[in-house]
């Protein structure tokens, strides 16, 4: 029998326990988009980064805690562009959502996603969005299953090499 998993807001003491999860997510993205992403020489999310997120009412990190951290999700509020062409409103963006490989397919991703959606609804934002690389079919399937639909596509044409 597996231990129970609680979903909660991250706290500053979670910083070092978040690193392996972010490393897994970063590796997946680097492997899929090596033309864009590289392995950083130093921690891209130092303690000061987490402290700033925790102090920001318009940002959150949620963790799946089973004694060890087995998943995380980060979400933040963004403003519409400051232009008369755009409706003045806010929306929320899920920037990260990852579950440790041994804990996938157990509903943890859905629970982390639900925490992000609940958080966004509490802030009365107009919508929730997520950006997913085309190579990440598993994430595309997941987000489609929880109700997301494509609203725009970003196309890329390499010009060098």
What report would you give on this structure?
With 161 residues, the chain is an alpha+beta fold. The chain has a single domain, classed as Aminopeptidase (3-Layer(aba) Sandwich), CATH 3.40.630.30. Helices cover 32% and strands 22% of the residues. It is built from 4 helices and 5 strands, in the order E-H-H-E-E-E-H-E-H. Strands 1-2-3-4-5 form a 5-stranded mixed β-sheet, sandwiched between helices. The model has no long low-confidence stretch (mean pLDDT 95).
Label this structure with key terms.
161 residues, alpha+beta, Aminopeptidase, five-stranded mixed β-sheet, 22% strand
- In whole angstroms, the N-to-C terminal distance is 52 Å
What value does the Rg take, in angstroms? 17 Å
> What is the annotated CATH architecture?
3-Layer(aba) Sandwich
- Runs with pLDDT <50, length 5+? none
CATH C-level: Alpha Beta
The third-level CATH topology is Aminopeptidase
Instruction: Determine the strand fraction and express it as a percent band.
Output: 15-25%
Task: Tell me the overall shape.
Answer: globular
Strand order of the largest sheet: 1-2-3-4-5
Summing up helix and strand content along with how strands pair, one would put the structural category as alpha+beta
Task: Look at the structure and name the CATH superfamily.
Answer: Gcn5-related N-acetyltransferase (GNAT)
Our count of helices gives 4
Total domain modules: 1
Please count the beta strands (DSSP E, at least 2 residues each): 5
| Biggest sheet layout | 5 strands, mixed
What's the order of the H and E elements? Answer: EHHEEEHEH
Return the average pLDDT rounded to an integer: 95
Helix content: 25-40%
């Amino acid at each position: 029998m597996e231990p129970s998993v609680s979903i909660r807001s991250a706290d500053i003491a979670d910083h070092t326990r978040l690193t392996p999860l972010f490393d897994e997510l970063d590796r997946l993205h680097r492997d899929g988009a090596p033309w864009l992403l590289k392995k950083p020489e130093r921690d891209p999310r130092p303690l000061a980064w987490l402290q700033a997120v925790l102090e920001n009412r318009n940002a959150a990190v949620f963790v799946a805690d089973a004694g060890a951290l087995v998943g995380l999700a980060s979400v933040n509020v963004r403003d519409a562009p400051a232009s008369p062409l755009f409706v003045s409103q806010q929306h929320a963006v899920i920037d990260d959502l990852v579950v440790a490989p041994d804990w996938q397919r157990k509903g943890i991703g859905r629970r982390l996603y639900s925490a992000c959606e609940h958080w966004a609804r509490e802030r009365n934002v107009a919508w929730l969005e997520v950006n997913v690389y085309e190579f990440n079919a598993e994430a595309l399937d997941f987000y489609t299953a929880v109700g997301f639909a494509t609203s725009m596509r970003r196309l890329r044409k390499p010009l060098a090499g």
